[in-house]
Amino acid sequence: MCGIVGYIGNKTACPILIAGLTNLEYRGYDSAGISTIEKNVLSVLKDKGRVNNLKNLSEFNSLKGSVGIAHTRWATHGKPSSVNSHPHLDNSKTFSVVHNGIIENYNELKNFLTNKGFTFYSETDTEVIPNLISYYYQEFPNKNKDVSVFLSAVQKACKELIGSYAIEVISKDFPDYIIVAKKNSPLVIGKGVKENYIASDIPAILEYTKNFYFLEENEFAVISRNNVEFFDSSLNKISKDLKEISWDSNATDKNGFEDYMLKEIYEQPDSIRNTINSRLNENGEYDFSDLKLSKQYLKNINKIYILACGTAMHAGLAVKNTIEKLCNIITQVEVASEFRYRNPLVDSNTLCIFVSQSGETADTLAALNLSKEAGAKTIAITNVVGSSITRLADYSVFTHAGPEIAVASTKAYTCQVTLLNMLAIHLAETLGNCDRELINTLKLNVLSLPNKVQECLNSDDFIKDFASRIYTEKDVFFLGRGIDYTTALEASLKLKEISYIHSEAYPAGELKHGPIALIENGTTVVSIITDKTLTPKSISNTQEVITRGAKTLIITNEHLSNSNFDTIINIPEVHSFVSPILAIIPLQLLAYRISKNKNLDVDKPRNLAKSVTVE
Ligand code: M6R
Question: Of 6, 319, 356, 425, which has the most beta carbons under 10 Å away?
Fold first, then answer.
């Protein structure tokens, strides 16, 4: 999705903006642009293609000044092109704007402004914003250099916008200010010494500051070199606390790995360890006391919803059975984009858990709003402190995966499954009616995860070999029963995302109800077998595809001796409730190695964005 960076200080803005945009490349984009001001002269440089391309444009060196805004665009309205790239100027070239989000009523606004004599040059929704600001700015008889006039014009323009936006605005008439506003799209302000930074997400500016302000919905900030002033939607002044972010700025380096995805796969022992430790007290007991979910409350709840998108939703699926078994509470896992539009049965006796790496996913955020309105208690499980979902939910529980840069989520997923298992155990202990022996086994299993994940990483060489044999294939099937089916879903998504190979995940027992018709000589089938109670069934299902000519990769914690299998990857034994955390590791590696064999851009797969902040 689009990315935003801004700088105001005493250094030359351009290199800082370029560095910030480069840090945001992982979000996915197709065009980039920068606008700076020096001595009341507004300059704009933009083009389709990579951030680095900007440096080759002849006007690059004329981008002077210590105030600037910048943008990476992920096209929604209008194809990637120089004219559609941000920043966009108003007709009088007084205001320059970058925008993340979608203005849903831009056609109406365009008609309104066209009737007032404005001309539009791009196909974007964004171009209405600088022109609306300009329109309202003209209304002020005395626009003599009071920044409140600039702010009022921005506020009046924002009042007209339907949809989502995070915007940065600079003006040649106010060369010492940047004004920002947000609604349903993230924006953070990083505080420095005599300088301030702006970004759509923290990693973009983490190398400059760890102190952040988070803008809430419909708020504005007027940012100068020495000051940041905040205003509500009616322009009443408000105050905000500065939050310190603990992420290490080195965490956004590749650290010698070829790609971020590979680095993040290999970081999993540490990220899982950090996530576990974040919820252990000094006696080694689970500590979720901040959630304040009493036994009485839990006894009365009618169901638990886990709402999320993509990989985060798969994390929810991986713990559904665990929660139901341990707590005896119906647990439904749903794609947030469906939940939000289907009048779900949610009330004050429903506990809704929202899982999101970024904490900014638009559909998950909408599902959260809906659940709150219906009176449910809400818990956010996210990786990003200060993100929109954490600010809205009643309680937040953080994964400690560190920044995840690769579009394909890996370490966030295993941390989410770990944390959700710990939460399930905590709920069961609070309810007090659980099988003590099972709880103790699970707790020991959780503690063993970092070392066992490390062992799973040893499968890389076998996986490399298998990947080199199947990377030209058109279809791959992933099979699993019970909890292994949830791993199959996640493995299939990983493969699709970064290798562009069509893949299907099926509950193994469902295959003969239709999809087995697709299995022919040489088809690759990956079978995940980690639940002892289902092993014989899973083996039979795998045998059925072998009989029809499939070659099979088996991921298992059992000692299988069937010589018909093409490759067996053995993973360490754990209780099946936490086995997805181990079983997914070789399959993340499989997707990665296939993508490398195909010479694809692993970290930035086509059409995808890291943080999906629009519907
Ligand atoms: O930031 P979130 O966890 O809310 O993102 C949800 C999905 O967009 C995300 O998991 C997506 O499916 C990943 N690209 C999967 O690798």
Answer: 356
